[in-house]
Design brief:
64% of the residues lie in helices and 0% in strands. The chain contains 12 helices and no strands.
Length: 221
């Protein structure tokens, strides 16, 4: 973990101590609710599509992507454009805390809390849990309901199915979608398929949080 990440995590524990504890508890309870089946419930092709589309430096950051933050800040200050810079940890925090207001205070709070996700979850658990609880559109809260709504089976998911699900994270389907939504959605699906075809989103399997903690204890002796 870099000095930047350690500083943000220390600030989170200092300024948001109670909220960090609440986040840890909520994440732990969600993890238990899936009874350890996240690895088998979430197909690898879906996990790859998520990382390729939403956070391609997922395995290289600790919950905050400084490169994406700098790029987004430059675009905002130079051109007045809002550009996404959220990591998967930040998106998970937003979903679990149910805070979506478009304010700087909420964003800063989300950034700090995102650095604490890794204290409870491994990278694989983080991406899997986010996919399981994310909002995909009207009547599609969580991965199982989303798959049921669009007729996709988790056990036989294709790359196109995975891209269609992940595209809904950026463009959630409304109850009565408009043509402009359909156009943006299909463009997003094709974009994700191109990224996956290029191999983006692939990485070596990461250790679980408990395994990482155990390794830390072993090396401290």
């Amino acid at each position: 973990m870099s000095i930047f990440d350690r500083t943000l995590r220390a600030l989170a524990h200092l300024l948001l101590r109670r909220q960090v504890k609440t986040l840890h508890r909520d994440l732990s309870e969600l993890l238990v609710s899936f009874d350890g089946y996240l690895g088998t419930l979430v197909p690898p092709v879906l996990r790859q599509a998520l990382i390729a589309a939403e956070d391609h430096r997922f395995y290289d950051n600790s919950g905050v992507d400084p490169i994406a933050l700098l790029r987004a800040s430059y675009q905002l200050l130079r051109y007045g454009r809002l550009q996404g810079a959220s990591t998967i940890e930040q998106q998970l925090v937003r979903t679990v805390t149910n805070r979506y207001e478009r304010t700087l205070r909420r964003k800063l709070r989300e950034i700090l809390l995102a650095t604490c996700v890794g204290e409870v979850l491994s990278k694989e658990e983080t991406s899997g849990l986010y996919l399981m609880v994310a909002h995909y559109g009207w009547g599609m809260e969580g991965l199982r309901r989303a798959c049921g709504s669009i007729g996709v089976r988790l056990c036989s998911m294709s790359a196109f199915d995975a891209a269609s699900l992940v595209a809904r994270l950026k463009y959630p389907r409304r109850r009565y979608p408009r043509p402009v939504w359909e156009l943006r959605f299909h463009r997003r699906v094709q974009h994700i398929l191109r990224l996956v075809a290029l191999g983006r989103g692939q990485a070596l399997e990461m250790p679980s949080a408990s395994e990482a903690n155990a390794a830390t204890v072993r090396t401290s002796y």
